[in-house]
Amino acid sequence: MTRSWPLLLLLLGGLVGCPTPGPVGDDDDDSAADDSAASDDDDVADDDDSGPVEAPITDRMLVIYNADEPDSLAVAEHYVASRGLPDSALCPTTPGGIDAIEASAYSAGVGVPVLDCIDGAWGDYLIFVTVWGMPYRVVGASRDLADSSNIVPASLDALLTAPYRHDELPVSPIYSPYYRAADSMGGVYEEGLSIADWREQGGANFYLVTRLDGATPADAMRLVDDAILAEETDLTGLAYVDRGWQTRDDTDGFGSYQSVEWELTRLVQAFEDAGFTTIYDENNAEIGTDPAPLTGPDALYYGGWYSFNNYNDVWDWNFGSISLHFDSCSACDPRGGTNWSANVLQRGAVATMGAVAEPYVAGLMGYDQFYRFLFQGYSFAEASYMATPVTEWMATFLGDPLYRPYGDAPLLPEGWQPE
């Protein structure tokens, strides 16, 4: 993970305030001239020729699977049945691989089939779910945030937030239109907004994409089974924050190490105000490594950093747990290896997130924002994307997008700000 002042300049000069992308057709880049676009004149959902959509969220989802992998279809069908989605939500693709694929394979095997599933009804959809058997990395798909001449991999899920850009690869990552601004050092946060309400208020055709994955198809299915049961369970356990890799001072420039230290500082306050007993480690070592605590018992929620592509196997994850670790390879392979995401899923966590390649500090979510939104009653997908400033980049979110453990009984009020 590296500090990226070039990224800061890029965001200020080219991304912040840039026009939000809209859907384009398979044959040109002009959505205004494309018959499959959401409207005749622009891309906003409330301008859709078919009129506003008043459907439940489960009718506004696609479940994207690998048609060449029978187990991938099985996971997709399990999700559809478990969450009560219509069979029409099933979206077959032919990516030609299950791990990493080339940009050309993504365009033909994933981008085009997903557009076929959307069938021009851009405003009808809000959330996509990719499942076991779908590749998680697309080689040669993005321009590096710090050096646009350098072509790097991207998260397949991140590319699917704007599937109409499939034939433009490599793309330049963009400032996420659904991101809610935050100043962690100052303790000031923009209020949350459900994806349905955001779209209703004129938000672009931007899709929230999360993944049901793991070491096996059964592990992927467990994520939705546990999410549904956890929503009906009084979740218990400790909250952990592991900061201290850098000295916190009075600066938190976007894309800097200091910004993460402030996010984790505010996360402690979010956990405590939500009622959790919190273990707060400020040692320059990960939990499980001396002088930090050597074990992590009774763990329900976690946010921390930093060692590269490493998981200290000292944790006891409670049912319904969410574990978020900030490093440059935290989801390099969500199905195995030494990375954080694969290991916490194998050990029972219901959700996590990470990066499939070097994301830079600004390319991952603000953990204080994520938990703030989760505790206010938003879903895993909504909280993840409202807390992540950059899209079409490296992040992948692993878990049921509809997981909403506090939807009926929020732990933090709307408008909560740390003291």
Brief descriptors of the model:
single chain, 419 residues, alpha/beta, six-stranded mixed sheet, four-stranded parallel sheet, 25% helix, 19% strand, disordered N terminus
Fold and architecture overview:
The longest helix has 17 residues, at 257-273. The protein is globular and about 50 Å long. A six-stranded mixed sheet has the order 12-11-13-14-15-17, with helices on both faces. With 419 residues, it is an alpha/beta fold. It is built from ten helices and 17 strands. Helix 2 (70-83) runs parallel beside helix 6, helix 7 (257-273) packs parallel to helix 9 and helix 9 packs antiparallel against helix 10 (380-386). It has helices spanning 5-15, 70-83, 103-118, 156-159, 195-200, 217-230, 257-273, 340-346, 367-375, 380-386, and strands spanning 61-66, 90-93, 100-102, 127-131, 137-143, 151-155, 174-175, 182-183, 188-189, 208-212, 238-242, 278-281, 296-304, 315-325, 351-355, 390-391, 395-398. The protein has one domain. Strand 8 (182-183) and strand 9 (188-189) form a beta hairpin.
What's the topology here?
Layout: H1 5-15, E1 61-66, H2 70-83, E2 90-93, E3 100-102, H3 103-118, E4 127-131, E5 137-143, E6 151-155, H4 156-159, E7 174-175, E8 182-183, E9 188-189, H5 195-200, E10 208-212, H6 217-230, E11 238-242, H7 257-273, E12 278-281, E13 296-304, E14 315-325, H8 340-346, E15 351-355, H9 367-375, H10 380-386, E16 390-391, E17 395-398
Parallel strand pairs: 1-2, 1-4, 3-5, 4-10, 11-12, 11-13, 13-14, 14-15
Antiparallel strand pairs: 5-6, 7-16, 8-9, 15-17
